[in-house]
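Subject — a protein and its fold

Tokens — whole-number codes for backbone shape
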Amino acid sequence: MGERLASLANRQELFARRQYEPVIARDALANATATWFGVGVATDTASCGLPIDVLVLVFAQEMVRRELGHAKSTILIADSNACDAGVPRLDVHRAASLAQAPLEVLIERFGFPVEVRRASALAPASEVERKQSALEIENGYVAQQLVQTEIMRERGAGVKVGWALSACTYDETYFDRLYTSRFGRQVTFAYTIGGRTLNPHRPRACPNLCREPRERLLLGARENAVRKLYNDTSVTAAKGYRRLLGKLARAYRHLTGEDPGTPESFLQFVVDVSAASTTGGTRRARESRAGLPSTLSP
């Protein structure tokens, strides 16, 4: 299975090919029954929305799940991590809701067997505190991340999908190396590309956190995403984001068999479907299962 995962990561463009090879724990991989990835909701402040870039992780995880024959996947909303970092709980709750609601609607629309849950409900607080204490790591956010990875492994989710960005000190590779140094090679890690922004001075970023809404294309927001992509945006930044959207559209076609049209059509489609999380919820997502709307092209 290790060879199959390495081959997948090498041929699929959503993975960080030739930069970050999968870290394969062969013995543990044979016992894994599920894949997972985490969605951060804060750094020093709470995220103000979920970028469409998170679909890099959603689609890559589904590719890994199918390649390895796992029955299910999990997305973990890292609310408890943010609370341990000192971010106000009300801000964390709002950011977690902004991430969870559109993800659940989109996943139902895509038909992927994924459970979206919050880290705060992953395990009893006493168990988490005991594991954190044993690590003797002062940084609560880091300790939470490592403990969650171990709990997920204990529950069969021994394959973790993360994002990697060479310009970022604290991408997923940082936490995964810490986990391996503390727990050994017990989890397999696969890495995707990072996200994009509309800021030409900072074009690359974490795919699931947003500090400035004007610089990201957001899920769950009722807006003309295509206009946002091209209006008042530098040509270079727009082209970079459009390349990412093209990769997402091709992955969507590969996984669902549906033709998403142009990158711009796909963008507006997923933004519109995800906005159902705020008005009509899963009912509207379910109604859209019949196929992509005929009015996709901008």
In short: Residues 280-298 have pLDDT under 50 and may be disordered. Strands lie at 34-40, 50-51, 72-78, 114-118, 159-163, 188-192, 195-196, 204-205, 218-219. The first strand starts at residue 34 and ends at 40.
